[in-house]
Amino acid sequence: MSLLIEPAEMAPAEGVRLEPARLHRKQPRRVLRRHQYPSRLPRSEPAASHAVGLTAGVFALALVAASSLQIMEILIPRFPLFPWMRLGLSYIIILPFLLRYGGRAAFALLVARNLITLLYGGQPFSTFLIGTGAGAVALLSIGPLLRAAYSRDLLGITGISVCLASVFNLSQLTLVNLALIRHAGFFVQLGPILAWSLFSGVLVAALIRLSEKEIPAFLTVAPKTASATPQANPLKEGNVWIFLVGLMGMAGILLVPSASLQVTALLVLALVSRDRGKALLVAWPFLFYLAWLHLFHTSGEYLIGDWVTREGLRDFVCHAARLGNLILLGRWVSRRFPWQWTRHSQSGSTGRQSLYVQGFLLALPLLPNLFKPSLELGRIVVRKLWTGNHTDAMSPAFSAWRNLLEVPAAPSVEAKTADVHSDRNHL
Amino acid sequence: MRRFRDGGGCLARPEWIRFAPLLGLAFVQCREVVRTHNWFAMDTNMSVSLYGESSLSDEEVFARLEAETERLGNLFSDYSLASPVAKMIGSLGDTLAVDPEIYPVLAAALEAGESAQGVFDITLHDLKALWGIGSGENNRVPDSSEIDSVMAGNPVYRQAFEGFSWQPPLLLLPDNRAVLLRENCRLDLGAIAKGHIVDRLHAILDSLGLSDHIIQAGGDIRLGGKKSSGPWILGIRHPRSADSLSGRISLSTAMAVSTSGDYERFFEANGERYHHILDPRTGRPARGVSSVTVLAGSGIVADVLSTSLFVLGPDKGAELARRYQASAVWFKALPEGICAIAMPEISDWLQLGGVASCPSM
Amino acid sequence: MFRPGGWFRPMDAFVILVAASASCWGFLGYKLEGDAKAMVYLDGVKHAVFDLADKRHEAEVSTHIGPMRLEVGDGSVRILKSPCPNHLCMKSGAARYVHSEIICVPARLLIVVEGKGIGELDVITY
């Protein structure tokens, strides 16, 4: 069935900018055969900083959905030694977003999503950088190609999803190795990661198909009540200099190859940190396994049996301590992110705040309250899929996300956001 | 505690544990299990590779082989004065009891000496000491007079010089006894003992049911049984660069292979290379050939022949090899590179990796 | 946004095939270590290991007669400096092929190139 046309009953809201594109025009619901379908999407990319037809409201909606889907993944247990084994559920939104609005818009969505996890998920800054870097490769480099291939009817959603997952995972693998691990053997994970990309890519494509009724309207019709002018930035400013010093510290940690310096830094950071470095214990199975390569696969004189060499132990200590330092310092740095940057970010010619920032700020107040409902939604989706009710498994989630933006935010949200930032004086 | 390389195979020594942190790659890592064990004996490196399985654990097998090597090493050593070989010294005409294990080796050595007309000699101990071969620290080029005086004290050399036929240094009597035909002459079984040892280890492994194996003692190799995945492939070391090969031998039947080369133990003086293979006829390092590789039916024959063929060179050497049903390939170092001379018998198995045949001799 | 038949185009099968074969290649073809490593034995006991796929570098191995300097990497290993009296092990040059050895008798040291090498030799006679 064709779903290129948004449901007729969903009328555009007052005050929401409507895109002029023909896809958005009201059309009678009908099934189109392939040859009737215009084989090309509008190809003229606007010179403006954002994609044709994209509004802040839609961006906010997509961001809420993508973040919520990412939270849903928590329901799926992560295997400690396979941290890259994630489904990438948020691509249910990001992929159609890429097809509709292009690579830059999709990348903006990904960055916004990563900023959200940085802010609320307690993610270290290094993880943010690597995730964003890999996303840049996947969405900015091959994203436009995939979009063009789709518009020319060369690739289907399944192929695009597999491509995106593979490229994202491969770039992440390369970035992690370049930045953190620096061991040639790291690429032994190539096979499993590609196999996993294939699996998760196909799964995400299947989930997109389950959502084919909802997505087109979801990504084109802005929420009714949401204002095109976002509220004031709820985020407090951070001291740019302190943030930059933190970043330089992270760069130093990345560059210094000395085990003793790294261990000293780790001890200092663990002592200064609020939880005395307990975060490291939690992170151990997810991150430190990476350093094991050095422990078992480094040339040198044997120290323990014929398993561990002296050099291997040294490299292991160095890299494990470095990972620990990045986690501890990265957490400190993420808390000091100068959010005023988002406020100051403006689209060049008009001098107005960029649409992405508007959307980001629109979605931001909702996110602290997103955690519980997302998990609940995830349970509903899983239950529906489990009972064989495939056709509208995803629909409650889509209406919930839209409702979240259409119903005015609860007053508690402000307090919650302020809460997050009252912590910033602690590490 | 002594550890063995790859002992026990894939499951007993779970290599894959190291991979588990990354991904259970175990199945990729379990390949054909060859267990190799190295140890030092007889002033050289010994190594045994096992292809099959037996009721004994690899550790027990390797320990047994090591013990046997040590025992035989002590038996044949000419440096330890307590060894039975070192004790076989006395006046002309003395009758000595010979250790029953040494007896057959002595017999083979004397027979080889006979066949090679003295080119294979087990009485080179004093000459080697003069050149400092074996001791490592006193390498020097002796004066001609010194060489002559050592050789003059040895009637065998003198006779050889004067054109007499070769005389054995001792006469073996049937009941594990020998009559000395030489006054105060120390024996040196270094050129035959390793060949005997690989034969012994080969027999032990066969008796343990581990018939598929490779035994290596320095330059002496004994193959056993067969390899499941095709013929044995042996590389022949390039006589002038250790990191390349001068040829390959592929063998579908288990044989013994031995190589003698002027690169094993040598020193350079006055721009000349002095190596450890002495020509008993001159008392000086044998000239003309850089290395020779011999294929024979047993380790002892291969070992004896590699030394003899090195000294004799390709012309007379081929004749001697044929008498033992062995085959050989010689390599010579020329200024423009090395060249090879192969007996027709070896050409079926031999592949020369870019090494030309020597210009006609 | 979505078009009929847009879920799976023939090229998608090709994409999936490429991803699957790349994955198989990654599983089977990519090794954690290089093809060959130099295993250093002291008195028959594994003492040190060097991956010959590493970049060429110098390394030191301690033996009972003193430290020995090796040059390893880029596919070969050799002894640069040895405390042994006549330096035969230094003269013997570099070892490159699987099964080739460098022996230093005074230090009771043996360096063997182990692994799956060119031509898959079973043994080297020298």
Characterise this structure:
The complex is a heterotrimer of chains A (427), B (361) and C (126). By secondary structure, chain A is an all-alpha fold. Helices cover 59% and strands 2% of the residues of chain A. Chain A has 16 helices and two strands. Chain A has helices spanning 56-72, 91-101, 103-120, 125-151, 157-181, 190-210, 215-218, 240-255, 259-272, 278-296, 310-335, 340-344, 355-363, 371-386, 395-406, 412-422, and strands at residues 300-304, 308-309. In chain A, a hairpin with a 3-residue loop joins strand 1 (300-304) and strand 2 (308-309). Chain A is globular and about 65 Å long. Residues 1-50 and 409-427 of chain A have low confidence and may be disordered. With 361 residues, chain B is of the alpha+beta class. In chain B, the strands form five sheets. Chain B has a nine-stranded mixed beta sheet, with helices on one face. Chain B has a three-stranded antiparallel beta sheet with strand order 3-5-4, with helices on one face. A three-stranded antiparallel beta sheet of chain B has the order 8-9-18, with no helix packed on it. Chain B starts with 8 loop residues before the first helix and ends with a strand. In chain B, a hairpin with a 2-residue loop joins strand 16 and strand 17 (337-342). With 126 residues, chain C is of the alpha+beta class. Chain C is 19% helix and 39% strand. Chain C contains two helices and eight strands. Chain C has helices spanning 10-29, 88-91, and strands spanning 36-42, 45-51, 57-63, 66-73, 76-81, 101-104, 109-115, 123-125. In chain C, the strands form two sheets. Chain C has a four-stranded antiparallel beta sheet with strand order 2-1-7-6, with no helix packed on it. The radius of gyration of chain C is 23 Å and the shape is rod-shaped. The N and C termini of chain C lie far apart (71 Å). The chains are: A mainly alpha (427), B alpha+beta (361), C alpha+beta (126). Chain B binds chain C through residues 2-3, 5, 19, 22, 25, 28, 36-40, 43-45, 47, 49, 66, 136-137, 139, 214, 216, 219, 221, 227, 232-237, 241-245, 248, 257-259, 261, 263-267, 293, and chain C through 27-28, 32, 39, 41, 43-46, 76, 78, 84-86, 88, 91-97, 99-103, 105-106, 108, 110, 112, 114, 119-126.
